[in-house]
Amino acid sequence: MAQLPLILGLLISLAYFPLTSRAPTWPRSIIKTIPLLAFSLAAYWGGGSAFLVAGLFLSALGDFGLSRDGDGPFLYGLSAFALAHLLFILHFLGLSGAPIYDAFSTVPIPALVLVGLMVSTELWLATHTGHLQWPVRIYVIIIGVMGLTALALPFGLTVMGAGLFIVSDVILAISLFRMSDTYHHRLKAGYAIWGFYIAGQALILLGGLAAL
């Protein structure tokens, strides 16, 4: 049963690729929101944890917020994703049964690289976000902790999914705050953001269901 909404979500996500760099419209927002709603339904029907189901659902709300124009929808989307990551942290902790800091002893190099990436955002990101500086800083910390929690798990679908999610967000941050609107690679960046994001969320979903 869980396969049907998963496949539906993946198919609709393909329809969004040509829209990644288009101006915000209601049809565009709806198409962007449906895949994660379908993933959340797949997690529910598949018997996934409540944290996984809710995290995917909040991600859909985040997709909707980021599909609209203006600081208000952006902060709404950022907040929804921050809450989604907090739920993913709880989901990953339930899967691993290990504390977050366990990643530093089991996989120290990836854990230190992730911390280094978080710290580096003070140089290449935070100073370019204007009045959104503190919301972005808080989000960086939350998604970084999510990544560390995932690293405490044995390497597999969930770890790869969390990694792809982080890669997507790094590209998104560069696109939003460091690229000009006329930059010639903006279209490619939009494809990469969406592709890594959907792949990451799908792997987090599949990893959660596989662990049952």
Q: How many angstroms separate the termini? A: 15 Å
Report the biggest beta sheet as strand number plus sense, adding barrel if it closes. Answer: none
Mean pLDDT: 95
Low-confidence stretches: none
Structural class designation? mainly alpha
Query: Approximately what portion of the residues adopt beta-strand conformation?
Result: under 5%
Number of strands: 0
Shape: globular
Number of domains: 1
Q: Treating each run of at least 4 consecutive H or I residues as one helix, how many helices?
A: 9
Order of helices and strands: HHHHHHHHH
Helix content range of the residues, please?
over 70%
What is the alpha-carbon Rg in Å?
A: 16 Å
Describe the protein in words:
The chain has one domain (3-210). The two termini are 15 Å apart. It contains 9 helices and no strands. The longest helix is centred in the middle third of the chain and has 26 residues, at 71-96. The chain is mostly helical and 212 residues long.
How would you summarize the topology of this molecule?
Blueprint: H1 3-16, H2 26-45, H3 50-66, H4 71-96, H5 103-106, H6 108-124, H7 133-151, H8 157-177, H9 186-210
Descriptive keywords:
single chain; 212 residues; mainly alpha; 9 helices; 77% helix
Q: How would you briefly describe this protein structure?
A:
The protein is mainly alpha-helical and 212 residues long. Helices cover 77% and strands 0% of the residues. GO terms for molecular function: hydrolase activity.
